[in-house]
Specification:
With 250 residues, the chain is α/β, with parallel strands linked by helices. The protein has helices at residues 30-36, 41-61, 81-104, 120-133, 149-165, 176-180, 228-240; strands at 22-26, 66-73, 107-112, 139-147, 193-196, 215-218. The structure holds 3-methylbut-3-enyl trihydrogen diphosphate (IPE) (2 copies) and magnesium ion (MG).
Length: 250
């Protein structure tokens, strides 16, 4: 409950210079991690959940204000039914066992994606987790679940079209800021740094709109092996980048 939180949980993070305000991570490679050990894929997903815990702690200790984790894409529903059941079961377990700890640590949890596709009990756990952590400011943790950026953009376009049809929106007034306000990420800063593990170098339908000027760091580590040291390496790499946003080089 917010009233029982330590005062630190309510402190607004002030990231030191050069630290990205918002880091988004495509957590990839769980299946390959398990396969390399002769284990079933679910073992990789379980080990991946441990890496999530470590990464949240690392983000807090580096005073990153916003962390967004790609946990399940809208395309991941196409995986074999057994793996989907294992993944949703793990999500249920994680929500039951971790949310109190997130709340204690001052983490505010948000979920983006088509949450209506999950079982009703999982939707209830997600609502409860968001409610329980709503007053926290130390780390804004967004988990992308059944998320697809094209879906998100189409839904925003549909909302705009409906508003225009009903006379609530003048199409001429729809600018980038207004459109961003119709996306699932409304109110969040764009990611400064996007990390993808496992060696793949693609976005896989993640934050297509929001990534317009993000820096990308691709790492060869498989997600279950991702450690605070890897997190630090990505921050170091980010600090070496020169961001221009289309302006003339300095
Ligand atoms: C990432 O690991 C987790 C999800 C996409 C749910 P993968 O399951 O994609 O693992 P690889 O890419 O097959 O190794
Ligand atoms: C992207 O990984 C989605 C998540 C990490 C949740 P995938 O493993 O699903 O992506 P592809 O299929 O390699 O592009
Ligand atoms: Mg993968």
């Amino acid at each position: 409950m917010p009233a029982t939180l330590p005062s630190a949980a309510r402190e607004r993070p002030a990231a030191p210079g050069g630290v990205p305000a918002h880091i988004a991570i495509i957590m990839d490679g769980n299946g390959r991690w398990a396969g390399a050990r002769g284990l079933p894929r679910i073992a990789g997903h379980r080990a991946g959940a441990q890496a999530v815990r470590r990464t949240i702690e690392a983000a807090i200790s580096h005073r990153v204000g916003w962390l967004t984790l790609y946990a399940f894409s809208s395309e991941n529903w196409r995986r074999p039914a057994g793996e989907v059941t294992d993944l949703t079961g793990l999500l249920r377990h994680y929500l039951k066992s971790e949310v109190a700890e997130l709340a204690r640590n001052g983490v505010r949890l948000r979920v983006i994606g088509e949450r209506g596709r999950f079982a009703e009990d999982i939707q209830a756990l997600l609502r409860e987790a968001e409610r329980l952590t709503a007053g926290n400011l130390r780390l804004n943790l967004t988990v992308a679940l059944s998320y697809g950026a094209r879906d998100e953009i189409v839904a925003a376009a549909r909302r705009a079209a409906e508003a225009a049809q009903q006379g609530r929106l003048d199409p001429a007034s729809l600018d980038e800021a207004a459109f961003a306000g119709l996306l699932a990420t409304t109110g969040m800063p764009d990611p400064d740094l996007i990390i993808r593990t496992s060696g793949e170098r693609r976005l896989s339908n993640f934050l297509l709109w929001q990534a317009a000027y993000a820096e990308f760091v691709f790492m060869d580590v498989l997600w279950p092996d991702f450690s605070p040291e890897h997190f630090g390496q990505a921050l170091d790499e980010y600090a070496r980048r020169e961001r221009r946003f289309g302006a003339r080089p300095a």
